[in-house]
Inverse folding.
């Protein structure tokens, strides 16, 4: 198996015992590789980078290198002053000292350390869990707050720039196959009109950015529930994983995405639409955790766009899943036909719930005073 061959390119002590699939990522292929020596065992995370999505894997790894190095230094420096051991995965070099290995098909592989004695959940488990998710994101923003954006490459141009997803949608709609998919179900038509009704509003953050109200900072890009590791021993958040999308962006993309993911306890693949809602208690807990650990990452004007960002990133993900469904599932991996349509419907439903609770969400934001 290719993964087993590639696992052995990295500078890891011992003999490879097994390589097995890990997690439910929608983009990369992820494995757990176990190595043993005659007296110990080490488990590492091995990933094949999806080159169709990340067309510049070398630059992506350069971003990851810079960000982890910066964060590790700061974590060590601050260690004695903080109440827990925050962690972040580290890149494991190849035997030649590189951050990635290339296989004979030209695919890029990397190995990173695994955050041990900790667990990431696909869906939020409790109010305390939500608070920990917010704490981890807050801490991550604090860690990157003094890293200049100019040092990071834009490895995914257009990522989280909501209007930039319309050309893909429109291109898919212009093909006979895209039209056939749109017209094949009432569900698809309903998602389509949901998206159309909000097209004009969808540039709200980009317009604020263009007016100079919001500025770019290093962001995580994908702070969903499943990317936050919770310590098995203390039940506290310990690390954020999946650093592929770390790049310049707005903190709003992260805060919006984190709330979108964490405050929907039914998860992204839920089959029962009556269960999908934006939970306000989880929202409040997450924001409290974020506030406690972000150390004033947000300006006053940033705060004015917090309601919009959670609505927008949820809308955007519905748009991204739906555009991919119409385009024939070329971006997000699927396990069954129609999965991207289903995912788009879940996010659409969640977005409606956010819109219905706008005044309560705004009240929570005021109360927490981020
Ligand atoms: C993708 O593959 P994964 O799970 O890390 C996607 C995110 C979405 C997420 C939804 C690079 O993340 O933007 O929010 O699916 N990542 C990329 O589950 O597009
Ligand atoms: Mg990701």
């Amino acid at each position: 198996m290719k993964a087993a061959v590639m696992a052995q390119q990295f500078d890891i002590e011992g003999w490879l015992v097994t390589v097995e699939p890990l997690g439910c990522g929608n983009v990369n292929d992820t494995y757990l590789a176990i190595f043993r020596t005659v007296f110990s065992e080490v488990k590492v995370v091995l990933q094949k980078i999806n080159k169709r999505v990340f067309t510049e894997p070398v630059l992506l790894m350069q971003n990851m290198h810079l960000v982890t190095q910066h964060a590790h230094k700061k974590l060590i420096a601050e260690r004695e002053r903080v109440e827990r051991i925050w962690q972040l995965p580290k890149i494991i070099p190849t035997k030649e000292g590189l951050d990635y290995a290339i296989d004979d098909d030209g695919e890029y592989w990397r190995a990173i350390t695994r955050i041990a004695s900790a667990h990431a959940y696909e869906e939020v488990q409790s109010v305390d869990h939500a608070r920990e998710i917010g704490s981890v994101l807050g801490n991550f923003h604090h860690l990157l707050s003094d890293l200049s954006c100019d040092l990071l490459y834009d490895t995914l141009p257009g990522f989280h720039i909501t209007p930039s997803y319309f050309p893909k949608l429109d291109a898919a709609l212009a093909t006979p196959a895209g039209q056939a998919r749109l017209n094949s179900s009432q569900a698809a038509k309903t998602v389509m009109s949901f998206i159309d009704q909000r097209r004009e509003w969808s540039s709200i953050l980009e317009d604020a950015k263009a007016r100079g109200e919001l500025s770019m900072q290093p962001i995580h890009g994908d702070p969903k529930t499943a990317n936050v590791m919770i310590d098995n021993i203390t039940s506290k958040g310990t690390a954020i994983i999946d650093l592929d999308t770390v790049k310049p962006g707005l903190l709003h993309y992260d805060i919006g995405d984190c709330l979108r993911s964490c405050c929907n306890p039914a998860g992204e693949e839920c089959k029962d639409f009556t269960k999908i809602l934006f939970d306000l208690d989880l929202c409040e807990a997450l924001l409290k955790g974020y506030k406690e650990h972000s150390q004033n990452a947000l300006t006053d004007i940033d705060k004015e766009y917090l309601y919009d960002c959670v609505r927008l990133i949820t809308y955007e993900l519905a748009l991204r899943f739906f555009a991919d469904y119409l385009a024939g599932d070329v971006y997000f991996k699927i396990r069954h036909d129609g999965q991207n349509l289903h995912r788009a419907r879940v996010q659409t439903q969640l977005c409606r719930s956010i819109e219905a609770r706008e005044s309560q969400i705004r009240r929570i934001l005021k109360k927490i005073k981020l």
Q: What stands out?
A: The domain at 116-368 is CATH 3.90.1200.10 (Aminoglycoside 3'-phosphotransferase; Chain: A, domain 2).
